[in-house]
Write a structure and sequence with these properties.
six-stranded mixed sheet; Cytidine Deaminase, domain 2; about 150 residues; single chain; 3 helices; alpha+beta
């Protein structure tokens, strides 16, 4: 009988003050906040914006898009990642900023949903390089994971 394999997955989030981030991370967060301002969220009123930084410096933005036929909408980070894949096939995604300006967002509980996590992990594995994830609620502290 074959022996089972063990696989471990661990994610560590580092918490930063926005003032302590480098300019590239602050700019990516600004792009994500701009994307969130274009969210279509009439039902939840929970806007989310995503901004993907590609290896060549290109930034691709996306925002959540809701639909009355729930769950036909899509999360902001997934819109950004899928747009990057559609517009720049094969490009390496270095970082993804995900933000919400919503008063409903809870800073220390703001994370991608399970579907989005699956998309991020698969994107990271497909490109063979880590995808850094940067999370922020409103203008509060920033949480960073060095990989999906």
């Amino acid at each position: 009988m074959a022996q089972p394999q063990t696989r471990e997955w661990q994610s560590t989030l580092t918490v930063w003050s926005p003032d302590d981030l480098d300019e590239a991370d602050r700019e990516l967060l600004r792009e994500a906040h701009e994307a969130a301002s274009k969210a279509y969220a009439p039902y939840s009123r929970f806007q989310v914006g995503g901004a993907v930084l590609l290896e060549d410096g290109t930034v691709v933005r996306g925002s959540n898009q809701e639909n009355m036929a729930y769950p036909s909408g899509m999360c902001g980070e997934r819109v950004a990642v899928f747009a990057a894949g559609a517009q720049h096939p094969g490009a390496v995604m270095c970082a993804l900023a995900i933000v919400s300006p919503s008063p409903k967002a809870i800073a220390d509980a703001f994370m991608p949903c399970g579907g989005c996590r699956q998309v991020l992990v698969e994107a990271e594995r497909r490109q063979g390089k880590p995808l850094r994830v940067i999370l922020q609620v409103r203008d509060e502290d920033v949480m960073i994971s060095e990989s999906a």
